[in-house]
User: What shape does this take?
Amino acid sequence: MRNFIILIFILITSSLSANEWEDKKVFSNGKNTNSLSILSSTDTSFFAPIIKSFLDKYPDIKIEYFVTGTASLDEIFRKSPEKYDIIISSAMDLQLKLVNDGYAKKINQIDHPNWAKWRQSLFAFTIEPAAIVLNKKAFKNIAIPKTRQDLIKELRSRSTFFRNKIGTYDVRKSGLGYLFATQDARTSETFWRLMEVMGGLGTKLYCCSGDMIDDLVSGKIAVAYNVLGSYAEARKKKSDEIEIILPADFPTNMMRTALVSNSSSRVKTSETFIRHLLNTQTEKNNDKTHSLPPLFLKPGQQTIILEPALMTYLDKLKRKTFIKEWERAIIQ
Amino acid sequence: MTSELKVSGSLQNRLMFTLISGAAVLGIILFFIVRGYAAQIAQNGQDDILEASLSSILDAVVIQDGSVEVDFPYASLSMLDTELDDRVFYSIYNDGILISGYEDLPLPEKINTEISIFNTIKYKDTNARIASAKRILIGEKERITISVSIAQTQDALSRTLNRISKNVALFGSGFFILVTLLSYWATATTISPLMRLASSVTKRGPQDLSPFEKKVPSEMYPLVTSLNKLMTRLDLSLKQSEDFIAEAAHRVRTPLATVRSYADATLQRVTKKENRDALRSMVRAIDEASRAASQLLDHAMITFRSDNLQKEPINLNDLVQNLIDNLAPIAEMKDIELKFKQEDKIELFGDFILIQNAIRNLIDNALKYSPYEGIITVSIGTSPISFLEIHDQGPGFPPKDLDNLTMRFTRGQNSNGIVGSGLGLTIAKDVANAHGAKLQLSNHEKGGACVTLLF
Amino acid sequence: MKYLLVEDNHELANAICSRIKLDGHVIDHTDKLEDAIAFSDTGEYDLILLDIMLPDGDGRSFLKHHRDLKKDTPIIVLTARSQVSDRISILDLGADDYVTKPFDHAELDARCRAVLRRKSGATQPIIKFGDVTFSPLAGQLSINGKIVNLRNRELRLFELLLNARGQIFSKQKLVDRLFAFDEDVSDNAIEVYVGRLRKHLESTSLKISTHRGLGYRLDND
Assistant: This one.
């Protein structure tokens, strides 16, 4: 297959668009009778295998793949929903609100488990944990914390060592970070104590998981809280310098979701793509070479549910209150 | 003659139609009532949840440091999760100014505290149920009104309603089918005595005018009573009219016979030609009158019997032989020879009295028109089809009258001086018609009239 | 011949009686059913003429009584009822024939003759004049033992003249007796029949003489 599919990666200059893309790529094998434009928060390297396998099957389609952060993705899409056919994001709350507000198209002929879809418009295709990631070197002589409580204890007891060596999402900038934080806060008060401890130690704030992992690997920071587990796993395969911990007290799992824009003019092709995406991401079909984990719930595993309540923390007033409190805790 | 009775529908069908359409109307009414009721209940369910959600939001409103905070719980929206993932919209106003939520979600002008008001609205191209209420908060300096609306689409509700409708429709159809079967059974049971009466009337022979004596339902009692009365009257009047006709004939004929006898006796004594001619005319008139009376009576009888032929097997050869024997003395008077040629035997199935009457009339005619010492030939044969032919040596039928001689009271132009009423051929033709036979008139090539009955 | 007439209409009865007497027969008349039964029980009649509707009963009961006694005297019914069903029931009850009123005497005569001929069989009266033998019932005339074929009307004429030998019959009288009422007959029709009869009788002792202006007469020389 790969022999006659010539994939062309073209880096497009930012002059074409006002948006500052994190990444932008075009996948094509030259025939191009149809095209699709995908707006995504998933790093290209993670998503490319899926696009490639799609193009193997449908060689005459050109795919433009735009990558940006979850928060700006929501903003960009709401501004011009007709420009993009498929929206992929890890911020479940924002995705759900897009559907609630009528931006998504219903796709009726898709058989997908009920818990992994909303209104037959929003389809989850991964289950990914929020993880505590550690630098192995830093924890050489220290017991590795298994829970948030352990982590709090560890941070307090070696406050000098950990000062300025902790990182987490800046929830004001990252949609996914905000989702993880609000879900944590909803689940347990431990979150706020952890935030206060982290705030006291001068925590670094990041826009994205990638940057956090980079700093962990380089040793700039020793602990990162609420890092996207899948990204960390991918990095761990390359360099075994980090340790990934899924907190045993309460794990937070999120689902990456996709929807077809209601204003899309290429509904048929979009639907075909969604079908392909969901099919690839079933536990049975998930290729081990793929970096994204499949849509698979282990027994006893829980995930953030797709329900209208996800919109609770998107409420202007609630967000304001939450961020005020978060800032009070983490920025001291 | 019986006139064709017009049939207008059937009692059973009418009864069934009434019952079934009643059931159908009832079913439809029931369907709408149940559906409406179900819709009401389902709507109340949705309203209850909306109201709970609404009050949980209102409860979360606090004034903190002089500013309004609405820290509503996760459950406020969580409770609005439905099986079909209905969309949820809300808006929060502070003294009429939107502080959070969807700005285009309509806020009713009049909102109560405590009690929510509900509306069904069109929002974002879909039907939504909206609940609104307000809460007044008194702060240190100010007094503010927080109004909240929360809306939910009705996908799950309409699916529930559709399911209920489907079930109710299914139930209604079952009910309808059951009623249809029941009404068929009921009408069949109701109508069966009537059918039994009808079939017992049909099975009766035309002569059976005895009253019905079987038990009948009370509703049919007047009908059967009237029918019985009618039959009794009919029976009586038939008997009476038969007697009356016979009596009338007797009364007329007897004095005619007397007058004729007188004329006869007088003729023996009168010698003057004018007087004799006058007497002859008189006698002829009497004969004509009596013959007309007979034929009218015969014709009436034929008309009466044609509707109810009393068929029996008839040996036509014997019948004709008897007639010839009976008419031989009259033929002899004129020295007419009555020949009977039997080429074959003919068995008929018909009304003996009518057929005898018809053939007698035909031979009578032949005798009247036949000349002295003439020959009348009656032939019976079956080739090519069964026939009876009477051929005389008289003047024959006038060719231009051939077509209408069988009309009532029509006589041929050459009948002058011969006694007759003009009904003889009519009678023969009517009898032939009643038996599906054909009467043919023609003139024999060697002269003389030829009458043929083709069976 | 001896006739019994049962008829309640006296005018008609008189007419019938006088006509039958003219033919040289004897006739008894009664107008009651009761008497009719008594008459027929006591007297020997050759023929009974029976009216059906009688003041004291139905003529049909007489028929039944008659047949029950197994009498073979022929009966001709005189009836005013012309319907076929009536005729059939009359014949079924044992009448030999019927005549519907009003009737022509010629018809009654013809029917009487036919019935008598049928009933009497071998015991027929025969009239003989020399070489002429005449059997009125069979209507047979033999001259010198040879049967002469005569037409019905010739026979009737012969019988008429024979029964009243020596009496002159006018042409008119002969027409009245020989022809039915409704027949139009000219006087010379009689001359034709007389002529034919004369020819047959040429060789016998019986002669028909013509009396100009008066009529005809049969003489036995």
About this structure: The domain at 14-127+255-301 of chain A is CATH 3.40.190.10 (D-Maltodextrin-Binding Protein; domain 2).
